[in-house]
Amino acid sequence: MTLPVKKMLKLLYPDLVRVDESLVKISPQTDESDKKRIPLTVESLDTRGLYIFDDGFRLVLWFGGSISPDIGRNLLGEDFTSDYSKVSLSLRDNEMSRKLMKIINKFRESDSSYFQLCHLVRQGEQPRESFFLLTNLVDDKNSGAYSYADWISQLYRQVQQNA
């Protein structure tokens, strides 16, 4: 697979951003300062939060298990309690939905060469949660595998030995 360096780096170390706090703010504007990257670990995920995971090819909207029902209802309508694999995200007639769609469009505009589909995942919804998010949290040590920092260190040592 051949990718530009920028796209490859995004795939190797994706963005994880908490967005629920900026959606409930009173101010109508959402700027870049609200979107701070957080570490790619399970401990970073708050059960009351809403996160966007961006690997450059898809966007995953992760809903914590204890997220406010008002947020779910505003973003997904009455479908917020059903199976998220059958729910589609669309613009709704409320401020919270408009803010979220604006944030998602900013992610999509950062690389217009590829339209990123948005997948919805609820905490504890297996196997979707593992497939779309948990296995991609590269700062976590998963079942004895290297964390991202360990993997980079290992890669660096291998390059130095071969040089």
Automatic annotation (TrEMBL):
Pfam families: Gelsolin (PF00626)
Domain Gelsolin-like as annotated: residue spans: 37-85
Record protein name field: Gelsolin-like domain-containing protein
Organism whose genome encodes this protein: Erythranthe guttata (Yellow monkey flower)
